[in-house]
From TrEMBL:
Stated name of the protein: Sensor-like histidine kinase SenX3
Keywords: ATP-binding, Kinase, Nucleotide-binding, Phosphoprotein, Transferase, Two-component regulatory system
Enzyme Commission number(s) of this protein: 2.7.13.3
Annotated source species: Fodinibacter luteus
Range covered out of full length: 116 to 385 of 402
Domain spans labelled Histidine kinase: 41-257
Length: 270
């Protein structure tokens, strides 16, 4: 009743203000919902490795007279704790990216160099699975941004390409200029992603196959990080994929102007 009376009084003078206020309110509620979901997800995701580590520690104590068993359990504790520390790191990275929405101190970044650095980070894991990585990059591809974040994003895509492909396959990484954009794409010959899931994989903690993701040491945050890094650079990430054939992920970033206006370009005092 009260709200009807108010709307009648307010509407003739400021309909748009009323609408904007209502939208702000919905937005704030949505942000709060997202925050609550994130906290719930995080505690759920942390409980798995923490629970695993404490069970394994008990197993070590029970098996104290059997050195082989002790070693086996200790190895698994190491695997679980490294997954846990990666998870914590990625949660922190993602929270920062979400809060910031923009970049701290953007600089001119050479995307070819960033892509090479990202490929290097994944090379050992790829070799272990006999997957060969090929990088083809144009020269002088520049964007304005954060080199470390961009390298993390590309490395996440290459890591996934390796993790979700069979041994002996090929992963291609390409960087090129397309119009006003710089594109970095990662193509694999892996298992592919069902069409119905292709949008959801960019959500935090969403996995097509949770057991498979866990087996590869995945945290479920890799693609959410890629999405936020692209958004913070004014770009986006997209996926093309066919089940059983493979996937291509493409990051599209606004190219920096060919010749940035530097201090030296300013007409100096004569
Ligand atoms: P994860 O740590 O589980 O790999 P991501 O956020 O990086 O988390 O990816 C989310 C899910 O998307 C993965 O669990 C997997 O199901 C799917 N996925 C990501 N990249 C690929 C790929 N190259 N090929 C097939 N599936 C993929």
């Amino acid at each position: 009743q009260a709200s009807t009376v108010m709307r009648v009084r307010v509407a003739p003078i400021a309909v748009s203000h009323v609408l904007v206020l209502a939208e702000d309110h919905t937005h704030a509620r949505r942000v709060e919902e997202i925050r609550r979901d994130f906290v719930a997800n995080v505690s759920h995701e942390l409980k798995t490795p923490v629970g695993g580590i404490s069970l394994l520690a008990e197993a070590v104590l029970d098996a104290r007279d059997d050195p082989e068993a002790v070693e086996r359990f200790a190895q698994r504790i190491m695997v679980e704790s490294s997954r846990l520390s990666r998870l914590v790191q990625e949660i922190v990275d993602l929270s920062r990216l979400q809060v910031a929405d923009t970049l701290h101190e953007p600089e001119l970044v050479d995307v070819g160099v960033v892509a090479a650095e990202a490929v290097d980070r994944v090379r050992v894991a790829a070799e272990a699975r006999r997957i060969d990585l090929t990088l083809v990059s144009e020269q002088g591809l520049r964007v304005f941004g954060d080199a470390e974040l961009l390298a993390t994003a590309v490395a996440n895509l290459v890591t996934n390409a390796v993790n979700y492909s069979g041994s002996g396959t090929h992963v291609g990484i390409g960087a090129r200029r397309v119009g006003d954009s710089v594109e970095v794409s990662v193509t694999d010959q892996g298992e592919g992603i069902p069409a119905a899931e292709q949008e959801r994989i960019f959500e935090r903690f969403y996995r097509v196959d949770a057991a498979r993701s866990r087996a590869t040491g995945g945290t479920g945050l890799g693609l959410a990080i890629v999405k936020h890094v692209c958004a913070n650079h004014g770009g986006r990430v997209s996926v093309w994929s066919q089940e059983g054939r493979g996937s291509t992920f493409t990051m599209t970033l606004p190219a920096a102007a060919d010749r940035p206006r530097a201090v030296a370009d300013e007409p100096g005092p004569t």
